[in-house]
Amino acid sequence: MLDLIFNFASGILQMNLRDPHDIPFALPLVFAAVLGFIIGFILLHFIGEENKQESKQDD
Fold first, then answer.
1. What are the sequence ranges of the domains in the chain?
2. What parts of the sequence cross the membrane (predicted)?
C-alpha cells in the first residue's frame, strides 16, 4: 500500500520520494500545511453542522 502511495505521489510531483536527495527541503512543510488545512476545514465544517442542528432542536 505504501508503494502505491509513493508511486502516485512520485508521478504527480515528478520526483522520486524514496530518494532523500531528490526531495526539496520544504516539501514536508508544504505537505503538513496542506494536510492541516484540509483537516481543519473538515473539522470546522462538522462543528458548524452540529451547531445548526442544535439550534434547530432548541426552536
1. 1-55
2. 25-47
Evaluate whether 22 touches 16 at the Cβ level (below 8 Å): yes
Give the 3-state secondary structure of residue 1: coil
Return the H-helix or E-strand segment holding 42.
helix 27-58
Residue 2, all three cell numbers: 505504501
- Using CA atoms, how far residue 8 sits from 1, 31, 48, in Å, is 11, 15, 33
Give 9-56 pLDDT, tens digit per residue. 778 777 777 777 777 778 778 888 999 999 999 998 888 777 777 777
At 8, is the secondary structure helix, strand, or coil? helix
CA angle 18, 21, 26 (to 5 degrees): 95
